[in-house]
Every structure is written in C-alpha cells, then in structure tokens.
C-alpha cells in the first residue's frame, strides 16, 4: 500500500517575505503611533490594530492552509486589506500635517525598497532594521508607506500563487475524497 499525504506541509509563515515585511510594518507602526499619534485617540488604536491584523492574518492563513486553501486565501486577502486601511492612515497623516509624500520613484522610496530587497533575514525578532525610532514623522510615515506597498504587492503575488495552486491540486475536501477512494481500491 502506498503512503497517502492527506494533510500537506503547512505553516512556515515566518519564512514568507510578505510576513517579514508586514512584521516590519507592525513594528514601525507601533513606534510611529507611540511617537506621533495621541495614545488616547481612536486613530492610534486603529492604526496599531490594522498593522497587527496584517501580520496575524498571514500567520493564521498559513497555519490553516493544511485543511483549507479557501481560508488561507481569504485570510491573505484580509491581511492585504488591513494593510490597505493602514496605508490610508499614513497618507492622511502626511496630507493633514502638510508633509511631503514620496512618489514611487523618489530616491528615498527607492532606498527603502532597495533595503528591503537586500535584507534576506527574518526581521521578526523585534529588531529595528530601519531605525524607526530615529526617523522624523515625515520620513517614518513615508518609509512605512513604502513597506506597506511592498507587503501588499507580495501578498497579491501570494494570492495569485494560491489561486493557481488550488486550481492545480484542489482543496482539502477533494484530497480527502481521492485519498479515501484510493484506499478502498486496496
């Protein structure tokens, strides 16, 4: 009798570049809000929770992937949506404070994107690789906007991969049926 793998490998979210980038966004958002947003304001809480949701939904989706590609895809989309909400908060902050928002190809934005591309380590250890605590409000908001855009792009790529994978291999219920059907043959 051949061995059947009903439950595929799952988890491993800490190795995902989307998770690493979202974790940096979360860490930076906490620092940003502590420094520049009134701790008693609803905005402070909303921004931190949106950043946290981005990270947590990537992890939860990755862990759920063993038994539900639908859940993984949904939670990856929720992570992306949460980061989209946070993106608007940073853009609003810059606009309301009459601060400059970097264009996609401004030298500062290219520098941030280049740093993320070159940093292959898992930054989820809480280290501040971008020196968030040393940046001005304008530079920190713009840095986080760059990282949010990067995370959103990575999550979109991840969602397209998950879609393709589902179309090629099916979901958990299909695998259960096929596995059981194959076992009955023996």
Structure summarized in a few sentences:
This protein is mostly helical.
Give the secondary structure arrangement, pairings included.
Elements: H1 17-36, H2 42-64, H3 69-96, H4 107-118, H5 137-169, H6 172-185
Helix pairs in contact: 1-2, 1-5, 2-3, 3-5, 4-5
Percent of residues in beta strands: under 5%
* Radius of gyration, in angstroms, nearest whole number: 20 Å
Question: Which overall shape is indicated by the principal axes computed on the Cα atoms?
Answer: elongated
Instruction: Please summarize the sheet with the most strands.
Output: none
Count of helix runs: 6
* Sequence stretches where pLDDT stays below 50 over 5 or more residues: 121-125
The assigned structural class equals: mainly alpha
What sequence of helices (H) and strands (E) makes up the elements? Answer: HHHHHH
User: How many β-strand stretches?
Assistant: 0
Distance between the termini: 7 Å
Total tally of structural domains: 1
Estimate the mean pLDDT confidence. 87
Helix content: 55-70%
């Amino acid at each position: 009798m051949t061995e059947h793998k009903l439950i595929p490998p799952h988890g491993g979210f800490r190795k995902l570049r989307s998770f690493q980038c979202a974790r940096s966004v979360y860490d930076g958002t906490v620092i940003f809000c502590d420094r520049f947003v009134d701790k008693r304001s609803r905005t402070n809480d909303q921004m931190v929770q949106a950043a946290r949701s981005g990270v947590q939904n990537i992890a939860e989706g990755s862990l759920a992937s063993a038994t539900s590609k639908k859940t993984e895809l949904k939670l990856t989309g929720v992570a992306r949506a949460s980061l989209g909400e946070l993106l608007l908060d940073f853009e609003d902050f810059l606009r309301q404070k009459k601060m400059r928002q970097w264009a996609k190809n401004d030298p500062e934005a290219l520098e941030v994107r280049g740093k993320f591309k070159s940093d292959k380590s898992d930054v989820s250890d809480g280290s501040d690789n971008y020196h968030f605590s040393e940046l001005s409000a304008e530079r920190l908001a713009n840095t986080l906007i760059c990282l949010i855009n990067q995370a959103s792009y990575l999550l979109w790529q991840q969602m397209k991969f998950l879609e393709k994978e589902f179309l090629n291999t099916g979901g958990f219920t299909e695998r259960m049926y096929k596995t059981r059907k194959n076992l009955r043959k023996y």
